[in-house]
Amino acid sequence: MTTPSRIALVTGATRGIGLETVRQLAAQGVHTLLAGRDLGRAEAAAAALKAEGLPVEAIALDVTDEASIAAAAKAVQSRHGHLDILVNNAGILRDDPSLKPSQQTLQAWRDTFDTNLFGLVAVTNAFLPLLSASTSARIVNVSSLLGSISEHLNPASFIYDFKIPAYNVSKTAVNAWTVQLAHELKGTRIKVLGHHPGYVKTDMNKSGDEQNGELEVADGARTSVRLALVGDDGPSGGFFYMDEVLPW
Questions:
Q1: Where are the alpha helices (DSSP H) in the chain?
Q2: Which residues are known catalytic residues?
Q3: 153 in a domain, yes or no?
């Protein structure tokens, strides 16, 4: 069993913000587990980063599969004995933007919540014993400003007319879960933080061949990394974008 100073695990990390989060954490000297549903893809992504001299390790983890989650937690226990940072990055968008909120399919809602909320909760619960074994642990939940009820009610907000309900409400639920878990863990060595990565140029934000977004992927990972490395005197239970506190 190896015992580097800090061990991190990032879900949904074979591409986009997740992959860049792995890169940036590893560049800070954190031994980072690159988790993906497809082990082959995770191994290929990890190999590319290891070729750059970064301390990265691949691990199979499907956040919608209980057996996969349990196997991943067992593997981390066997290899490292603890976990210092969990970044819940895995997420999907199944809404059809051409449809009204009431027209979205029930299957889109179920698929979205299975990954964005239930998978996040299941992974967190499975890894809590390993996080509790850390001297200073962080749980970082990748949410979205689209989960902010306050901003959806604000006609001046740029998200006011951006109604993709299954995705939006799943992120509202992630924010609520962040608050609940932070309250449970107050007084412990584990901090729980949620954040909005920004409007990032990722595959999720593509419309056909058109690439939408304002931020490069490297900037989109910055808040995850900042919160993952926050000091013991930092906050817990908040919702952030870069250094800004966001409204629920």
A1: 16-27, 39-50, 66-79, 106-113, 120-132, 149-152, 165-184, 217-220, 222-228
A2: 167, 171
A3: no
